[in-house]
Structure formats: structure tokens, C-alpha cells
Amino acid sequence: MAHFKEANGVGEWLDQRLATGTLTKVLMTEYWIPKNINFLWAMGMVLAFTFKILVISGIFLLMYYKPDVNLAFDSVNYTIMQEVEYGWLFRHVHGVAASVVFLVIYIHMLVGIYYGSYKRGREMIWISGMLLFVTFSAEAFSGYMLPWGQMSYWAAQVITNLFGGIPLIGSELVIWIRGNFVVADATLTRFFMLHVLLLPLAIMMIIVLHFYSLRIPHVNNQECEELDFDKEAEKYKKGDKKGAKIIPFWPVFMAKDVFVVAVFMIFFFYLVFYHYNFAMDPVNFDQANPMKTPAHIYPEWYFLWSYEVLRGFFFSSDLGLAAFGVANIIFFLMPFLDKDKTVKPAHKRPMFFIWFWLLIIDMIVLTVYGKLPPTGPNAWIGFVASVVFLVLFVLLPIITKIDFNKAGGK
Amino acid sequence: MRELKILLIVIIFTGITYWGVEPLAHSVFHPHTPDADYTFKDVDGLNGVKGDASKGAEIATNCIGCHSIKSAGFEAPMSANDAAATYGVVPPDLSTAAKIYDHNYLAAFIKNPAVASKVAHKFDGVNKVHPMPGYDYLGNEAIADLIAYLGSIAPKDISAKAVFEDACSRCHSMKYAKISSTTQVDVVSKYMGSTPPDLSMMIRSRGDEYLHKFINDPQKLLHGTSMPRVGLTKESEEKVVEFMTQTGDSKKDERESLGPKVLMYLAILAVFAYLWKVKIWREVH
Hints:
heterodimer; A: mainly alpha; Cytochrome Bc1 Complex, Chain C; Helix Hairpins; two-stranded antiparallel sheet; globular; B: mainly alpha; 2 domains; elongated
């Protein structure tokens, strides 16, 4: 038994037992962030906040939702949307946040790519982030099925069917995933379990990993300058706050983040109240009907680019599936495909800069054509954009090497 | 300045993506169609003839063999189920007909129901005959008298729910409003060729613009559908959509009144957050 002195107040009492003072220093007041950053560095906190909104609104929805093909649609559209006090608000918030969170994820990812924040020690930040992207995607897909509307059903039908293309085990795998030969009650209840338990649990654990992975390499900065964090921390603690190139997470970094989050919330709640159809597809307010195929089946906007890579190879579904598989894992490999041994923002890497903007343009083209009917010229545009996407990643090691050599290794 | 430049780039690329997946895709999925026509100018209607209600009362005896006119004291000759079994669908009560339907349309319908309601592709008169026979042999004057009579017995005011029940619920159910179709589901499914959908959430799945155009002329948006054009006046159709909104989007008013309050709160929060940020960062810049 260690020796404990009489505590002077609650704070000290807790500090004696849980070392809350040290913990606050480690996590907040002496967790150092570079000073030279812009508002894009707040996207992580915007994401954390949006995830919190998703969890809280999800808990409220969970109190009334019924995971049964005969009850699901009405529990959402009648009980929650019409009967429960402010049930509609929680559903709108949940639905819109699920869509907007992907916009912020994409911005967050592209910022990482632009500033090269995935290499030279920051590989685990990137990989854990990509794991979050994958688990968020699974979370979104499983959640989309729950209202049991037409698009819930048919998207589930089409996407689960994709696994049928895997050689040898494909057809068995589809049945195993669905728990039935077709998408049915068994599918709904297991997707419900994934959506409210397994995947959120995995996401929370990976978020912890993602935050932890930042500790040693530290957050990047706008000029990608390599900082001696210990030296800068000394400076800051001695009172040279203006001269130090770093700031503490709390309160300085968060002061900026809170402002960015507040502005983001204005945008978000504007969508919740006035402009929600993009996230809550009207087609999904028709109850699932296995006998009636909707005129157009398409995934939510954030899956369109990879869906278009799948459809792009319209002459061969096997080739499409292979390309789709590559598209879904290729971003994991960013740190290893980038052969430039320096960390610099894209505007200081001539060829990579072009590569970056081509990637964005190509992904937007894929997204837009992923929704349009794949007929006539659309099919060819989709094909070309899909090939460009793959070629960009084949070229990445080459152009980054050229940039590196031209810069003389600096 | 640099931050604003970056913000502008983010907004532009987000905006282009949004434009592509929403307005552009929707314009491809739902090509533009002409606005609803509440004058029904394509029909052979009253042709300007003014009717006499007192003469019309006599002509109405033609109707009560199948229809009830409860406001005039004529009950239905058969139970709803028997009538549905006989005709395929329950014949409507005519008490409100002249209130909710356009008079020109009504005249054209009495003359030739399948043509006026645009379901001649279904009731071609050879393989399948429309349950209501055409009365064009009565002539324009008699039909005008009949409509004048129906106008004289029609209510002055009618609720949104009553319009919906009279115009839609012989075939359609709306379970969130606890309305079941007056024709039994299996009977009406056989009559129409497929089950008429429940209308509870149509306001969210179709939106009011689509609903107005569709109710006004179903064939324009869903070519070949067996749903008839019913000839609602603009005012009555607005009541139908109003009732659908009350049912499927019942919290619309709450949503629209809460929105500004939440946004105002957040705007104030953002101002304070900005002031706090400036205060904190003054020490480090």
C-alpha cells in the first residue's frame, strides 16, 4: 500500500489516485501541435465531433427502431418521423451527418496527400486513418439498409452480389453474408448488429489508435518543416510563446478548432433543416419491394467513384471487380508508392502537384458518372476515368522519384 | 488571406461534385415535363353550355343505379364489397363530385370515361370495358344540366382529408392516416393490374412538384400506368397534397420553425468562438 496524504479538494484527490495532472499535461496542455497550420488542420476535430453527433443521434434512434423486415420501415417513417417528439430531428441529423462525414473524411484525406503527411514516420497515422475510412464505409453501408426502403434493399442486393465475383468461393460467400439466398430478414438483422455494435466498436478503437499514432511523429505543418518538438516545447514553457514554433493542444489548438467546428455546424444544420434530400434519398421513402426494381440503382454519393471504377469496365465484370478491389486498397499504399524521401507540400513538388489535381478531377468525374446511367458516351467516359485512376497510381512511384531527383534530394 | 483562398478551393470542388450528383443526375433521371394543366383543354367538355340544376335532378336518376349521392339522400344500391365485386372498384359517391372535379373534365368523363381519364389503353372497349358506360348520347345540354345539379348539392367547403378520401381512397390506402382503400386490396389489385401503392410517405418519396404533375395527368410522368386522370381542380389537388403532407411530413412546420432558431444559436456561438480564438492566439502570434 502506497502512502497517501490527506487531499486538499477533489482535484488533488483525483490526482493522487489517477495522476490526472500528468494526464492533462500529456493529452492536453503539453501535447504539442505546430503553429504554422491552416483551418484544414481542424478537420480531424470536425470529424471527431461529427462522429459524436452520429453516436448520440444513433442512440436515440435505437430506442425506437425495429430490425425486422415487417416493422423496420414503419418504425422509422411512422414511429420516429411522425410520432416521437423530435424523432424526425434525430433521423435528419443522423442521415445528414452520415453523408457529410464522408465529405470531411475526403477533405481530411486529401489534405494528408497534399502535404505528404503519410510518410517519413507518419505511415501508421495514414494506415490507421485508411482503416477508419474502410470501417466508416462499412458502417454507412450497413446503416443505409436499416430503414428498409427501396434503395436500402436494392443497394444491398447489388453490393452483396459483388462478392459473388470472387473466384471459387464467391457464390457461397454471398449466401454466407446475406444469411439467405436473397437479401431478407436475416440480412437486415445482421447488418443491424454490425451497424450498432461491431462496427462502431471497431471505429472507436481505431480512432484511439489513430490519435495515438500521432504522438511520436507529431502533426505535420503547412510548410512540412521538420521541428525539434522538445526544443520548441522548452521555448514555449519558458514563456517565449511567440517565438516557439509550436502550440499546446489545449487551449490554443482547440480555440481554433472550436471556431471551425462552430462554422461547420452552421453548414451542417442548414442541411439538416433545409437541404437533406442529397443524404436521405427520396426513393428510400418507398418501402422495400423485391418484386419492383427502381429505375435507377446507385449508391450514396461517397461510394460513387469506386462504384464507377467497378462499372467502368463495362465489357468485363471480372475486370471491373478487380479494378474495384484495387481502388479500395490503393490508398493504403500511398506511403509506399511515394518514392520521394522528403516531406513537402504538393506545390513544391512540380510533378506531384499535377498528379494531385489530376487525381481530384478524375475522382470527381468518376463520382458524377457513377450516378448517371452507364449508356452511350457515359460508359466510355466512365471507362477512361477508371483507367486514368489506375494509371495515376502506376505513375506515382515514377513521378515522385523524378521530383526527388530533380530537387537533388532536398 | 491564404485560409480564405483554401476555403474557396474546397467550396468550388465540393460544389462541382454536388452539382454533378444532385441537379445534373436528377435532370437526367427526370427530364423536364410541362406544368400541370388545370383547364383540361384537351377534353371535349361542357363546350360553354350552361346547365339548369332543376332539369339535372331528373337526369341524375341515371346515376343512382350504381352511385350513391348521400347529400341528396340517395344511398348506394349495393354494399361496397358487392359493388367492387360487380364493377371491379367501388363506384364513387357523387355528393362532392362537382366541388372537387373540374366541370369541363366532369362533362368529358360522363361522355366517355376511358378517354377523359386517359385509360383507353386499358379499357379498349373490346377486351375490357370501362365499368362506367359513356353517356355522350345524352348531349351537351343534358350533361350540363346534370353537372349543374351536382353543383347545387355539393358542399361549399370541404376538408383536405375529405378530398383525399373522395378522390384517392377508393383504390389507395394511407396507413399512417389510418385510411384503407374502400375497395378491398385484392379486388382493386385485380382491377388495376397491380396493387395501388400506399400513399403515406409519397410526399417524401415523390415531392410536391412531382405529385401535382402526376395527379393532374399520370400518363405524362408514368406512361402506360393504369391510374386514371381524375380531373381534380387546382384547389382540390392542393388539398390532396396538403393532406399527404400532413400525413407523411407531419413535422414540416416544426422543422421549418426550429431551423432558424438553431442556425441563429450557432451563428452566435461562432462569433464567440471566433473572439475566444483571437484572444488565445494573440499570445502566440
